[in-house]
Design brief:
The chain is α+β, with helices and mostly antiparallel strands. Helices cover about 55% and strands about 15% of the residues. The longest helix is centred in the middle third of the chain and has 11 residues.
Length: about 80
Amino acid sequence: MYVVGECRLRALLKDRKLSQAELGRRTGISRSQIGHWINDRKRVGVMGLDKARTIAEVLGLDSPYEIYEWDEIVPDKAASE
């Protein structure tokens, strides 16, 4: 099983030489909301799939799931016995 890890937007924007403000202009999502996803996921949560799809399209990603790192959770064998 996998869980959402860190938001990769900061690195994706840097690679594409885009600012949060420019991404906001291209997507219609406020710069402040983009900043919250980048800096404070634990408080604001993970973006919805509709927003992720919009951002992925602007950034030229193959999938909206590329916006986040994904951490594998390995079941504890002792807990299942």
